[in-house]
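Narrative summary of target 7.
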Amino acid sequence: MKTTTFIVRICFICLILVAVAFIALKATVWKGQPDSHFKELKKDIRSYKPIGNSAYKREQKIAGVTKPYSRIGRRDYEAVPVEITRVVKRDIEIFLVNNCTLEPEKQVDILAKTSGIVKDILVEEGDYVESEKILAKLDDEEILLELKEAKVRKENAEMVYKRSLETFKDNIISEEEVEDKKLQFDTALVELERKHLEYKYTAIESPIEGVIVDRSIEKGDNVKKDQMVFKVADFDPLLARIYVPERDLNKIEEGQTARIISEFLPEVEFKGKVKMISPVVDPESGTVKVTIEIAGLMRGVLRPGIFVSVYTIVGQHQDALVIPKKALILEAEADEVFVIGDFIIINVDAVEIGKLNIGDSVVCKQEKTADVDYTIYGKIVDISRSLDGKMPTAITIETTDVVDMRTNEMFDTVSFYNGKNILVLQIKDIAFGVETKAFKTRVTLGFREGNNVEVLNGLKEGDRVITVGQNDVGHGANVIIVSEEKEKEIEETAKVKKT
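Modeled conformation, tokenized:
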């Protein structure tokens, strides 16, 4: 009885251990699942079956496309779903990024030059005014009376002074008395000029051309002398004052172009240029003040106080080859991408394969396809010989032409030419298939701009590179394109309306 109980306990413990092991495997090894983005697509992935020695006459139609078996002994496999984009040509820049608020180059506080009651206000905040434009008027009745009184005193002093000159000639008065009368005349003249100015100052004028940004008086207010009544700013040009780290100072020069983008107008790009570079480094922050001038603005589009991002361009390449940064293979030792292409696959009898070499030119013809002859040109990029040397050999042909819907599943003739353009083999009535393959390609990179990078070597314009799914792809693997990123989407960051 004790033995039976012991055995039951041992079995129970074993079951517990198996359950724990299963849970551990579930949480680690079996955890990875295919991306949900591609899960549904893999339901329709195509498999490849051998077509044997009679491949010249026979073909396998999968989803309307012929797919011949290209490697003897190869197991069925699935094409990897990927997203791609094309290599495009456009300008690319490198820049320093800073944030700041815009300032007007000119901003003036207008002060009352005389005291008085506000009689009329002729402008409002936001109005554009010319230089010497009258903005407001003070009550001038009292000033006019004082002006008339000063004028009378001046005329009287002038008359007394002239008389003193005549009497001095007759030796009736002394020279000192004449000088005193002249002083009284000069004082009256100065007082008259002062009253003229006070009368003029009752009309408050703008000293500069610009926009009224602040009005601090109301009609009927009693304005004191030197009281601020208006604030006027010139919105063209505006200034962006940025602070550049000392290590980047050698990249900045006067006259360099800058791009200015505001959050409230993200689709519009404004042009600026470096106007001034401070000659000193701030010892506390280790930065240098750089002033960017933004001129020729549409009135009212950008305003002082707006928070903007400033991209100071320190390098530019025109007509550069550009790809998204996400196309790069992350774990590669060098900078590499997967380039995809369409390839024609045909099977050639083993006895004929000795005549062919990688790089040979190929001409594939279909006669009277859609009432026209159809010819595809290409070259051999792969020859997959069977292990025993007896079964048909798969030939992979890279085409310079697009295999479109005019083609069917058979070529009437396939001709192979060597490097001397001599015909070495011609096959008639041969089945073919089209495969989309990915090949790892090393590239040399240049400028990096946001999410895009410049390619100096390794690619050409129009090449298709994988941007999503490259982690599941091997060199020479078959892929299926599920979407293609358009050039407009590639330039999303540089895609701004310029003004």
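Residues 36-78+338-438 form one domain.
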